Amino acid sequence: MNIFKNKKVVVLGGGTGSYMVLSHLKNHVDDISAIVNMVDDGGSTGILRDELGVLPPGDVRQCLVALSPETSQLRELFKYRFSEGGLRGHSFGNLFLTALEKLGNDFGAAVKTAGELLQIRGRVVPVTLDNVRLRLKTKNGGVIAGEGVIDKMVFAPKEKPSVFIEPKATINPEAKKAIKEADLIVIAPGSLHTSTLPALLVDGVVKAIKKSKAPVVYVVNMIATKGQTDGYNVHDFINEIEKHGKTNFIDTVVYNTIRPPKDILDLYASEDGHWIDINLNKLANSPYRIIGEAMLSESALKKGLIRHDGEIVARVITSLLRGDLRV
Question: Looking at the keywords, is Transmembrane helix present (predicted)?
Fold first, then answer.
């Protein structure tokens, strides 16, 4: 397999979307910077933040695992989650990152050390090293606190609330450097309000993106977040991202062209979320380069799941690095 040398790719986001992109992109590009949002406060991560005052390890752990060799036993150890006893619900990776941070009082250094131990291809970079929390402003002017709470919210129909972080945070210098030097910046798919936007809300991130020479590629979700982005079309996601960034900065939009069978879509609509359509007429006169590719995972579909095919997504990204669209 050919691996791009001397090409630098930044992947912005966190959670399962970044995990999918990174897990496959590492086999095509040798210089990847995964820039991770730092607002996670649910589950194991939330307990560790509240009880020990550490920065959130969860999404960082996922990105470290994604960039590590598949055959690594340490990778499996980082993924291991305790199912009983006092550590029930905690993953080993979260505990390890927390211990490293407490040992050196430096989360950035802890992430680097973990990356070295896991022998990752590329680097994982927290978007900020400030201790921040996600907030959401409702249409009535109220404020909802916490990523874990916001993630479970059901918005009013057609409501498009704003999210922000507190306290005001500054961009991690390593994240700023990675964005400046990038040849391509990828916004990974993920939950709009709790994954994608928080990575862009840190002061200095969008400014660094605008200053960078790198094109910005947004890989659009296939399924809406139930109760939050139901009814969104592709252009709605773009509009919300750039509204929160307070400027236009996306150059290319990549979307999936294959529609799953109706029975699977109906099941998702009742339990997880609706299919996200693209209105090409709405985007016809937009400044974006619109690229449609068959990116639906056939193996996931056989299990009744709607997922991106990470290998195809990686090939689309590398084709953009080459300057063509041969996939």
Answer: no
Instruction: Compute, in degrees rounded to 10, the torsion defined by CA atoms 127, 132, 138, 144.
Output: 140
Q: How far apart are the first and last CA of the chain?
A: 14
Q: Specify whether the CB–CB gap between 177 and 131 falls below 8 A.
A: no
Contacts with 166 (C-beta within 8 Å, 6 or more apart), sequence order = 132, 133, 135
Burial of 53 (0-12, 13-18, 19+ CB in 10 A): exposed
Amino acid, res. 179: I
Q: Are 188 and 241 in contact (CB under 8 A)?
A: no
Name the CATH superfamily housing domain 4-38+170-322. CofD-like domains (3.40.50.10680)
Single out the residue of 49, 43, 52, 51 nearest to residue 15, CA to CA. 43
Residues whose CB is less than 8 angstroms from the CB of residue 244 and which lie 6 or more positions away in sequence, other chains included: 162, 163, 197, 200, 201
Tell me which residue of 147, 210, 200 sits closest to 37, measured CA to CA: 200
Alpha-carbon Rg of the chain, whole angstroms? 19
Looking at the chain, list the stretches that DSSP marks H as alpha helix, in order from N- to C-terminal side: 15-25, 43-52, 58-67, 73-79, 92-104, 107-118, 147-151, 173-181, 197-200, 205-211, 234-245, 262-271, 280-283, 298-301, 310-322
Residues 132-166 pLDDT 10s: 999 999 888 899 999 999 999 999 888 899 999 99
Tens digit of each residue's pLDDT (9 = 90 or more) over 168-179: 999 999 999 999
- Examine residue 57 and say whether the peptide bond preceding it is cis (omega within 30 degrees of 0): no
Give 275's strand partners.
223
Domain positions in the chain are 4-38+170-322
Q: Amino acid identity, residue 92?
A: F
Is pTM beyond 0.90 here?
yes
- Which pLDDT band, with edges at 50, 70 and 90, does 302 fall under? very high
Q: What is the C-alpha separation between 318 and 94, in angstroms, rounded?
A: 31
- Contact (Cβ atoms closer than 8 angstroms) between residue 250 and residue 241: yes
